[in-house]
Amino acid sequence: MTGDTIDGADRAPVLAILGIGRVGSTLARRAISVGYRVLVAGSGSPEQIGLLVEVMTPGAEPRWAADAVDEADVVVLAAPFSRLHSLPLANLDGKIVVDVMNHWQPVDGDATGIELLDSTSETVAAAVPGAKVVKSLNHIGYHEIEEDARPAGSTERRAVAVASDHPEAASVVLQLVERLGFDAVDAGPLANGIQLEPGMPLFGARLDRDSILSVFAAEQDAA
Amino acid sequence: MELGIYSFGNGLRDAHGEYEPSARATRNLVEAIKLADEVGLDFFGIGEHHTEEMPASAAATILAAAASITSSIRLGSAVTVLGTEDPVRVYQQFATLDAVSNGRAEITAGRGSSSESFPLFGYSLADYDTLYAEKLELLMALNSSPTVTWRGTVRAALDRAVIVPQPEGGPLRIWLGTGGNPASTVRAARLGLPISYGIIGGQAARFAPLAKLYHRSADEAGVPADRQLISVGTPGFIATSDSDAHETFWTAWNNTMKYLAGQRGFTAPPRQHFDEESHAGGALFVGEPEEIASRMITFQRQMGHMRHFLQTDVGQLPHRDFLRSIELLGTQVKPLVDAELGTKNPRVAS
User: Fold this and answer.
1) Distance between CA atoms of A191 and A124, rounded to whole angstroms?
2) B274 touches chain A (CB under 8 A)
3) Does residue B267 lie within any of the structural domains?
4) Count: domains in chain B
5) Interchain contact, A206 vs B273, CB within 8 Å
């Protein structure tokens, strides 16, 4: 696959996945299965998660969160949204940061202690102004990341949207999504990430590329 | 392997789409538990919810009513939303249930997938983790001694508090209920608690690695193998013909998905999605008895659980269909499962 490189280097990006709950562990397993090097971190030490990683995500390398970030090209935020400020945000400067989190009011409630901007990814971007934030993969059910993945060209391949204000970061994440087994759809600027949030038509829906594009086209017409 | 049922209560609607009295849904549950006992099922669980759609808010009360008209079925919560309960009160209620049922009470403590109990009982979701961790610790302390001394941040301290009634047959079986977060599996294993998985969609066997993680973590913590118990709750519906089962349960499941989709902001999945998950390999155990028995046996061999219980009365599934499914589970599925796996609990998978 072309373009799946960092800074012109002839290698796939190293992923750090922060959060090894249902989403993080599933993503890690899937990424490893398609050939990525994956570093994972929970809220504590690598030793604390050693057995969990060995059983649930064999091949992933446990790290302290800050160390995982420092070693990685792409950092995936897969912690509960309410724990945003417990992540090593200062280390994210200059990194490509994929926000796969959701603020799910009926489940999480309002009391996250986080001042919310229009969309959660803009909230994340404001918390890490030096990072290149990309919103993606939050609108697909976590186990579907494995169950619905299909090879490129498959007629039943599902699409996943990618929104970012940083075109080079978006391009890396578009490649990542493709390689994970989904049609990656460029959804434009990060503010468009609001279309991927709970309560919006893309959230939890199995859509193909054209259906996702038509949602954004309709949004543009309405604007 | 044990077989059973669990329910959140099923708010039925009349011809105009209005909810029927929730008192009726409550009585329906008592009737269902009685039938489950009569047809030889091993377990009935009530999961705490607080909505007109799912009105089973007071599990211990429903189970106590059922205890007096049943003889051998085990009765438990599935789950008790522990973070918004007083563990002392939970323990007293289930110890009382244990007394009136002659030793058939169980508790499944969980976080719950809904947050409605937080405002109802005056708790903040911001305290979710602390509430759950401390209250689980207290519940376990209550289960290990008739007088309890405890200090924490989420309720008043206890100083040699006497807890009555005490279960006669030793500690209650307290499960930790989880929807699949690996950390919850590790927590249960380290605490030496049996674990109960709620698998409500996708492929059922995706939980098999968690079972492995549970045993590995429990071994590491020195928990004896005979105390490493796994149970599994999934959606399920049985009818005499496969197509009837799928048509009837699709309507109910779709109603529930539309309801939850409205609550939680996702898009209700289409029929194709249901069809994938309600056939071999999927988490929805929907079909005729032989098919369900065969799928349950296959799944047991992947996961090593000692109990599989089905959530059937969802989305205004007609009560008579619920009762019929319970009857078929007990009279037709259970003998087939027993013939293959034995009536004793299968050996814990290693």
Assistant:
1) 11
2) no
3) yes
4) 1
5) yes
